[in-house]
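Q: My labmate handed me this sequence with no annotations at all. I'd like to see what the chain might look like in three dimensions before we decide whether it's worth expressing. Could you predict it?
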Amino acid sequence: MKVHVISFFLFLSITSFSQDHRTASYADFTGAIGSNQGSASLDYFHLWKLGKSKKIEVGLGGRFTSYFGTSQYFTSAPASLASDESKSDSLLLQSPRVNTLNLAINLGYRISPKLGVGFNIDAVGFSFGPQRGGSYINANQGHATSAKPTPFNILLIGNNDKGSLNSEFYVRYFFNKFAVKLAYQYLFVEYTTDTKVQQLPEANDRFRNKASLFSLGITKQF
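A: Here is what I predict for the chain of 222 residues:
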């Protein structure tokens, strides 16, 4: 894990361009909480200011997210199963833990020098974390199994997504170079079982939890 965190900070150093009126850079530390689950994340975005007033902010960054939960249900992840509840089975994990490091996209609007709003979403990256024992559950039976975080993450829109991806709708209030951030966080977390435990209507080993979290963060503007 230390290697991944060091790599993240190296990414920050490489992407820390000199600032002028055409660009902005933000780093956030955010904590989020929901029903028996939560997350902590660290991100950095370099943004380009667009439009005559330079209030539109569009850019890229990196985000490290650590998810944790208690007694969480994960449902069949492939789009062919997730789109129909009758085809979806469940995986119950007592203490899921997933860490992700993803490239992310940001779109923001600076309403005033003190107030900004926006949206960001993970696009591609990888996940890691401990293997967890759990229970596979379908309409007829349940049995013990084990699973690990799905290693590769990619944004393909909706149920086509694969892996673990973080997204936020946020508002920031600035105090000079620092800001308080309030956000609604929508976090996909995915595990892959050791075997294809689901067999009907098709073989499947990927299960996803869709976490809706409310978050509070601190932003540093560079």
